[in-house]
Design goal:
elongated, single chain, 19 strands, alpha/beta
């Protein structure tokens, strides 16, 4: 069920957990039978009495020690940089600070923060007012992101989890304390499913059975999840090679056929760099496979380099080489199953139906540009079409070091 919280954002859920610790998410449509908290709760008004809850104020040494023991297991050895999102009155943040960690705590409620500031005085903790759904921190800023009874309040928890995980340094941990009570909250299976695409390792702990954490027995589902996000994938791109074979003021082009991509369009002889190849070796191989030319390394020169992104968004690096006929022999259609025509065209009178990034490469080649970006918009056609804006951006070249 969707509701509107204190910050005006629509949320999913029914009611606050009896032991809920965070105030960022706002209230619920119904009312908690014990606390009276619900939709439109004034969390600033609630703050002075918030710590009356056993697991809120942790005034009972047994409750405090139970949470401290759990945190010791979930957090790395001190000192680590810990972010407590939706910290409420700061009880968990205080335990982390006392354990020797460098703590940052945030909440949307000024009154909650005032309670937390008094509680954390002298610990060196940094407190600020912030929206937990949009944490105002740089990526990879923390070793631990700690969140208690908050995730279930957001309409799209998957998006929020991605933002929280992005705050972690390599090797960091996201520590969630959540639950499912009556018709509200998130079951453990749902949280682990949301985290599965983001986490390399997941550790879960049932908490309902440990009455010390709550100041007494509870009969609902409460649990912790410690997620170690997968390291970010290193970006990689396909590298391809293209040959501009010149015959005077003409260039050789091939018309693609039966490949499933850009069939019927003209393109320079080209292909992908294979494992273990350098780009020059690759263009010599592709020239032979497609046109039968036996070019030597000294026959080819680099014309330009282009980073290109297709309309689908996939990007690649293209190396465009130049060779001059009759180097390597007379070209022929050596792959008739992939190409139905091989023809010479004047550089200043190129055919209709050119692959757009090949056309951009030829434009740059004629202009003497050496480094080019060419990134399609999502709805662009693969072919160069009149009326579609050109996407090429020429990169400035360095003049080289000053003469000395």
């Amino acid at each position: 069920m969707t509701r509107t919280g204190r910050d005006g954002a629509e949320r999913d859920g029914e009611r606050m957990p009896d032991g809920g610790g965070a105030s960022d998410g706002g209230g619920a449509p119904g009312r908690d039978a014990e606390t009276g908290w619900g939709a439109g709760t004034d969390w600033d008004a609630v703050a002075p009495g918030f710590d009356a809850g056993a697991d809120h104020g942790m005034r009972d040494p047994a409750v405090r020690d139970a949470w401290a023991s759990r945190l010791t297991a979930w957090l790395p050895a001190a000192p680590a940089d810990v972010l407590d999102l939706g910290c409420g009155t700061g009880s968990l943040a205080l335990l982390a600070a006392r354990a020797g960690h460098r703590v940052t705590a945030s909440d949307r409620s000024p009154a909650m923060l005032a309670e937390a500031r008094a509680k954390l005085a002298g610990t060196g903790a940094h407190l600020l007012r912030a929206d937990a759904a949009h944490p105002p921190f740089a990526p990879r800023s923390f070793d631990i992101v700690l969140v208690r009874h908050l995730l279930w309040l957001f309409a799209d928890p998957a998006v929020v989890l991605r933002r929280w995980c992005a705050l972690l340094r390599p090797g960091g941990r996201l520590v969630l304390v959540e639950g499912r009570w009556k018709d509200a909250g998130l079951p453990l299976a749902e949280v682990t499913a949301l985290l599965a695409p983001l986490a390399e390792r997941l550790h879960t702990e049932p908490l309902s059975g440990d009455a010390r954490l709550w100041g007494g027995p509870v009969d609902d589902e409460r649990y912790a999840v410690v997620a170690s996000p997968a390291p970010p994938r290193r970006h990689s791109e396909i590298v391809d090679v293209h040959l501009f074979l010149r015959r005077g003021d003409e260039v050789l082009l091939a018309r693609r056929a039966n490949t499933g991509y850009a069939d019927g369009l003209w393109h320079a002889p080209s292909g992908h760099v294979e494992e273990g190849e350098d780009v020059r070796t690759a263009v010599l191989r592709e020239a032979y496979e497609e046109t039968g030319l036996r070019l030597a390394p000294e026959d080819v020169r680099v014309a330009l380099v282009m980073q290109h992104a297709a309309p689908s968004g996939g990007s690649r690096i293209g190396w465009f080489f130049e060779a001059v006929h009759p180097a390597g022999g007379e070209p022929r259609n050596a792959e008739p199953h992939k190409c139905d025509a091989l023809e010479w065209f004047p550089l200043d009178a190129l055919p209709e139906g050119l692959v757009a990034y090949c056309a951009a490469g030829l434009d740059a080649y004629r202009a003497g540009d050496r480094f080019v970006l060419h990134r399609h918009a999502p709805d662009d056609p693969v072919a160069r079409v009149a009326g579609v804006p050109g996407r090429a951006v020429v990169l400035r070249e360095s003049p080289g070091p000053p003469a000395g």
